[in-house]
Amino acid sequence: MKWLVLIVLAIAAAQLYVRLAPTSLETWNVAGPAKPPGDYSGRNWFEARRAVAPDVLGRLDVVAEETARTRRLGGDLTRGPVTWETRSLLWGFPDYTTAWLDEQGNLAVLGRSRFGYGDGGVNRRRVQGWLSQLGLTG
Predict the structure, then answer these.
(1) Which InterPro entries match (predicted)?
(2) Global pTM?
(3) Which CATH number belongs to the domain containing residue 102 in this structure?
């Protein structure tokens, strides 16, 4: 019985940490290095680059803000970077999506997980879904 109580307390502590851990905009709101248009991915991140019109960040912000459990953390909606936080439904795991216009005027959208070693493809689906709503499929 003692072990069960300890396990439940450990799960509750992990849940509280995931939900209450402070978020630093300076950590997540960073533009990456230049890349040509295309899709790039890793174990817990996905990045899409598209050639676009200059007003795209404002339109992307509207799409992002309409996404469930998503809020803008901050950033510059003219050139970027601008970052949104999306939390998972059950545990509230945060994912961060940052968008910016690179030196060539291409839109870069990078979604990544804060915790864990894999994201089950949620960052890819979110980024591609947002781009699809803007008519920017790959």
Answers:
(1) DUF1499
(2) 0.83
(3) 3.30.310
